[in-house]
Design a protein that fits this description.
Peroxidase, domain 1, two-stranded parallel ribbon
């Protein structure tokens, strides 16, 4: 099971109930999250987590992440900044495309990726939340605001070496299909015992 599966579900459900709803509160919260960015008068630059906490939709997501025991291992380091990044970027998404991963969509279906390799490498090099936010916003814009919100939210929240490796494999289509009938089985790869071949 993908280690981020509970996170995928959490971000998907939050986006559907708090961001994608066609009511006044959801529209106001979505607009407020889209306007957020770097905190004022802070050096080095930092994500405006305090501003995010003034938005009802973000507080809902914060509680969901903070109260679920299964997600406790993800609440480490600058997790509040990364959570704000995920919420701010997901607020930019207009259509959920759950059948694909974000990195696979950026890699495209042919030899011409949707996101240029140089820009994708720049995204993979993003380490601090401010840089990640800027690069992820560009990615969503390239996707015309259509993205798998569960995968995208979980990835931004857990943006570590494991996640970056997974994105690289999906972008360059290096990951094997779930059921690859062309791959040799373990039985084929195992050497045939000499005893079954008869004496020379």
């Amino acid at each position: 099971m993908n280690r981020a599966s509970p996170l995928n579900e959490t971000f998907s459900e939050w986006w559907e109930k708090s961001i994608d709803k066609d009511d006044g509160q959801a529209k106001a919260d979505r607009a407020a999250l889209c306007r957020l960015g770097v905190a004022d008068q802070v050096f080095p630059p930092a994500i405006d987590v305090a501003g995010a906490l003034t938005i009802g939709a973000f507080r809902t997501l914060y509680r969901q992440i903070n109260q679920r025991e299964i997600l406790k291992d993800f609440r480490t380091g600058d997790w509040e900044d990364r959570l704000a990044v995920a919420a701010m970027v997901l607020a930019q998404v207009r259509t959920n495309t759950p059948s694909h991963t974000t990195a696979a969509l950026l890699g495209g279906d042919d030899d011409t990726p949707l996101m240029a390799e140089s820009r994708f490498r720049r995204l993979l090099r993003a380490k601090d939340p401010v840089d990640l936010w800027a690069q992820a916003r560009r990615a969503v814009a390239l996707l015309k605001r259509e993205a798998p919100v569960g995968d995208l939210g979980a990835s931004l929240f857990t943006w570590d070496a494991h996640t970056r490796r997974r994105w690289a494999g999906a972008y360059w289509r290096l990951q094997a299909p779930a059921e690859d009938q062309s791959a040799p089985s373990a039985a084929v790869l195992s050497p045939t015992p000499l005893s079954t071949l008869g004496a020379p």
